[in-house]
Write a structure and sequence with these properties.
Shape: flat
Number of helices: 5
Number of domains: 2
Structural class: mainly alpha
Helix content: over 70%
Largest sheet: none
Order of helices and strands: HHHHH
Radius of gyration: 19 Å
């Protein structure tokens, strides 16, 4: 999630007011994620070094109702980038789906269906803009 936010931040070009505002919004989303990653890392270190088993509450990240989903962004460049990445992924994996059998093929076909749905959503969003 944090990596997706960083990638989205790098797609923002220019220093317009809206670009600066979007970067600030993304940075505000990254800060709590970084703190959460640091907290999990500390729990892991205590487990390995001191054999302290972390509390179950430490291992789950609290979900905030106000945290927006970065995949619902209305930034046209970010939407186009995500759509193109999904197209590439679909092209590659539709070919590879015939190479597998059994549960691996079923899982891949399910992910292909999910990605196709997301690509269609992105196409709709881009047409509306």
């Amino acid at each position: 999630m944090r990596g997706k936010l960083h990638r989205e931040m790098t797609t923002i070009e220019g220093n317009t007011v809206s670009a600066i505002r979007r970067r600030a919004e993304l940075q505000q989303l990254i800060i709590p994620l970084s703190a959460e990653i640091e907290r999990l890392y500390d729990a892991k270190e205590k487990y390995y070094n001191e054999s302290i088993i972390p509390d179950k509450n430490i291992l789950t990240m609290p979900q905030s109702a106000e945290t927006p989903n970065p995949t619902t962004t209305t930034d046209r460049a970010a939407l186009m980038l995500e759509r193109n990445n999904i197209r590439s992924w679909l092209t590659k994996n539709k070919r590879n789906a015939t190479l597998f059998t059994g549960p691996k093929q079923t899982e891949l076909l399910q992910r292909i269906e999910e990605k196709t749905t997301r690509r269609n959503q992105l196409d709709t969003l881009l047409k509306q803009q």
